[in-house]
Amino acid sequence: MKKLRIAFMGTPGFSVPALEELIDGPHEIICVYTQPPRPKGRGQHMQPSPIHDVASRYDIPVYTPKSLKKDAHARAEFVALDPDIAIVAAYGLILPKAILEAPRYGCLNIHASLLPRWRGASPIQHAIWKGDTETGITIMQMDEGLDTGAMIEKRAVTIRPQTTAQSLHDELSALGAAMTVKIINALAEGKAPDSEAQNDQESTYAPLLTKEDGHVDWTQNTQEIDRQIRALTPWPGVWTVNSEDKRLKILAAEPVSEEFFEPPGTVIDHAGHVSCGNGTGLRLITVQPESKKAMDAISAINGGYLMVDEVLGQ
Question: In the structure, how many helices (H) and strands (E) does the chain have?
Fold first, then answer.
């Protein structure tokens, strides 16, 4: 097996298993590219990305350009590293043609959907939110389009009624790592992988999420709201407002079989049932009142942060 020189490009926790699997393998990680440190927390201290932390732990050189498209020096620096292949996983920067063509085997992307469905920045959340019954990982040969490159391998996983964004994130992250190692080792043995062009007519787009995406519309039925909560927790978070116009985060809830015919958004009882569209209902389990810690819904009602008979979201 030939020992490949790998450039790894990623930023969030999703990327970590793939990098760690490659570090443990027979190949050489010659560099890591990741987003620059960002201010976080109340103190706004600069914190490196999860991928940066892993690379530092293994003494792998780290590069944090703000742009590869606009920074000619950063592009030249990457080309000079002479990688055999680049593995890209949720990096967050656009890769211009000069970067895509620099490695001998090009740039492979670990994308968290079954392409061409859910191209874009938030495929995990959209797959749950929009009611898909399955999603998966696609290993893709990158081109200059947005997640439009030829597909090398796809593997599906089931989305269950209890699947959350966090649980799906962890499952797909581990799957993507295993698939990447398999493909890298095949390349090292001289086995060029087959690929298949995407059908652009079947593509859907998963744009970057905003806090407004988490605003509950209580006229939707309970299944739609349940999917929204499971998809958008912890980020960007799901929320409503109470009768005092105070924001209330909904951290956990569950659909119920009872029918409710009060106006959508009505808090039905002390158990935390809320009426939804089409006579359906949802039971709030964990909520976080504005400027307060998370608590169970019954405690929120007992504490006056929620009131029976009030209509949420007005």
Answer: 8, 16
> What is the helix (H) or strand (E) element at residue 230, kind and residue range?
helix 222-232
Strand order through the sheet with 85-89 = 62-63, 28-33, 5-10, 85-89, 107-111, 134-141, 151-158
Tell me, what amino acid is at 268?
I
| Distance in angstroms (rounded) separating the CA atoms of residues 89 and 145 | 16
pLDDT in tens, 229-242: 999 999 999 999 99
> Cis omega (within 30 of 0) on the bond before 12?
no
Say if strands 85-89 and 107-111 run parallel, antiparallel, or are unpaired: parallel
Domains annotated on the chain, with CATH:
5-206 (3.40.50.170), 211-302 (3.10.25.10)
Round to whole Å and give the CA distance between 298 and 52: 42
Preceding amide of 193 cis, omega within 30: no
Show the tokens assigned to 115.
């392409």
Question: How far is residue 215's CA from residue 92's CA, in Å, rounded to a whole number?
Answer: 26
Distance CA 25, CA 61 (A): 18
**Cβ pair 19, 42 in contact under 8 A:** no
pLDDT in tens, 92-149: 999 999 999 999 999 999 999 999 999 999 999 999 999 999 999 999 999 999 999 9
Q: What is the reported pLDDT for 40?
A: 81
